[in-house]
Model the fold of this input.
Amino acid sequence: MKPSLAARVLFGLAVLAVAGWSLAPFLWQVITSLKPAAEAAAVPVLYWPSRLDASSYAMIFKARPFAAYIWNSIVVGLGTTFFTTALGASAAYAFSRLRLPGGRAALAGILFLSLFPGTILIVPLKYLAVRAGLLNSRWALVLTYTALNLPFAIWVLKTFFDRLPRDVEEAAWIDGLSRWQTLWRIVLPLSAPAVATTAILVFIFSWNEFLIAQTLISRDAARTVPVGIAMLSGVTVYEVPWGQIAAAVVVTTLPVIVLVLAFQRRIVEGLTAGAVKG
Amino acid sequence: MKDTPGVNWLYALPALALMALVNLLPIGETFRLAGEFGRLTTDVRVWPVLRTTLAFTVATVSLELLLGLAVALVLWRPFPGRGGVRACVLIPWALPTAVMAMAWRWIYNADYGVLGDILYRLGLSASPQIPWLADPTSAFWACVLADVWKTTPFMAILLMSGLASVPAELHEAAAIDGAGPVRRFFLVTLPLLKPTIAVAVIFRSIHAFGIFDLIYVLTGGGPGGRTQTMALYVYDTVFRYQELAYGCALTLVMTACLVLLAALLLLVGRAPESR
Amino acid sequence: MAEVKVDDVRKTFGAGRPVLDGVSFTVADGEFVSLLGPSGCGKTTLLRIVAGLETADSGRLSIGGKDVSDVAPKDRDIAFVFQNYALYPHLSVRENVAMGLKLRGTPAAEIARRTADAAKRLGLEPLLERRPAALSGGQRQRVALARALVREPRAFLLDEPLSNLDAVLRERTRGELKLLFKKANGTVLYVTHDQVEAMTMSDRVVLMNEGKLQQIGSPEEIYRRPANAFVASFLGAPPMNLISRAEAEKSGLFAGLPEGDLLVGVRPEEVKVGSGREASIVLVEPVGSHTILTLDCGGAAVRAVVPGSWVGGSSCRVEVPSPSVHLFDAVTGARR
Done:
């Protein structure tokens, strides 16, 4: 059952089409960001800049505290990743290895909760944040994001732990390690692939999140990047700096693209493990 | 090692406590603060908004399914460079929705948008300047396209793993039985893919129903509120019009709709099993 | 039913040694032929090439006198029984069995008749509306067989169909299969790594190793006159004693060995215990119906089989009748 030449050519074209369609909007932003200011908004549309001009990139950092936005996103991202992984691993270990009466029900409940998009929570969340004095605090974001990512993290890690052979843990037990120590010093290192996958996906989620970030943080210097970019356009209707916006978009999305290119296999595994919940 | 349930639950406690705090507490507060339920019946906006939300959900999920299946069928068998192509395919899903919505606004720009220009050059449009976001229908489909672009990868990845789990022997048995490639797709591939498709559709429908980021940044719900979905409506009610009680009531309605949607899809997903 | 002819088939996967290195043989119309050999010998690949699931790099294939080397599997008019049965999980037993006929546009009445007939022959009547998931391994295997029988193909190809059954079921099904295909007058190509299956079921056996055909003949032929050392040692349990010329001469059991570098062979059951040279018994392994003795004859280790239990002590007399001696070239393995 060998494919003919025609079939293979068609296949190659299909692959190119798929890759092209996936990258086109992003690539268009890259091109737009590298145009001299006058050419970005030009009629008719210029498909390639007459010369490469990176001034838009410089301007975004001047016009707005863009560097602060990036820093905030990094801090929140790393914080979320850390807490999600730590709390998630501990909980997943319990669900996988320890005797937990009512554990199944709790897991089902967690999964059920995870189905609902954050849009339902924003209203009371803001209210609660105000009451707790956490408005405009990056901690509010870290706590919220962690809570939202825990179901996924617990599921992925539990699935992985279930498949880990128990003999290594039993050997550790005989050697005298406590359960707690076994989790952190034996099981987690052995679970590095699953942990890495979870961490990457959680970081990406945190980096990308918009609604909650916008709801809970209104002080400009504390904003995260997606919100910062959405703010870029609102100065006046006639002066929308599309070149700068494009530059901001590129800067924001580049870290994610690098992560995806480097870890595409892990991400795919994480997605399928997390989504095919049987 | 001590194995008492009490101690064991402690391992999960921080996680559970945090999730309860962020999920259950707000839900409790929503119930407490919700009011003006009567307004739900008189509010003219509720039905159009629900309709828009449902239309958006149906449109995006069906398109994603079809496109995702097509992409999955192309990409699931190993070929040189597959990793790179898969990474490209993943990128739309991985990029920040709100940020890419800005990118789409640029593509859909009435004066300088590149999509209009491409269609004009291909002879499909009379003018290169198309006011995508100013017309209700085209604005709706503009949102659908942008969402489909973003979420097709997720579908494709799920379907690819489903395709890979179909035993090769089944395809071979069908080939020997006399089925050509098209027949084999309907006889072997599709039926075995059903569980995966069911899971994917449920997930995606629930998230599509609650969509916010994309539409907020792309159209703001316009023109004239014609692309406003439930989530946007709730957001406006609370943060623009400062009507907290009614906003919470709407949130409850939205939650109820989601639960209904999930239950409905689960039922539909299970039904063929009991033949 | 038709004859199946394999002509100089070769195949290599990637950059290794060839999986099939020029295999040729013919299965006569109505004949039951087993492809036997250790794992990796190429037997399954060969079967799949005959089915059209793989293509050979070179060589021709014909079924019923017609060259089918470039014909798609569905047009070769063969039926294939997979090792894991490959039943359609979402269809009932009846639909599984009928699928091949349905896809070929057979009229509904004919489908119903043939399905009922196959179901009767394989005892599937009470199971017709069930799904594969609700069947036991043995039942699934019968469905796979029914699916093949109902097609009335020109040849049946079976890929280790009994290997997933437990030992007891395997024994019983062996006999049933042999009768089934005899009654259907089927041309059968049957892949297995189990020599008992091959020997008991086949008209002829094709023994393969490392992609090459080692010997083809009836079970008696290949057992009595193995063409080379591989065949000799593969068939028989316990396997044939194969010792070097030097050891053979030391043992004093073999007289008049011809010139040259030889491997000397004798089957354990043909070693006569009770008369002849003195030998010490190193190991006694009672099997129940017989006992395997490992003997030391002047430094050479030789195994013998005696009926019943062994009560004779730690030494015995042993001799080898000359008709029972097999000689093989020590370098090529070929029979001398």
Notes: Chain C has a mean pLDDT of 91.
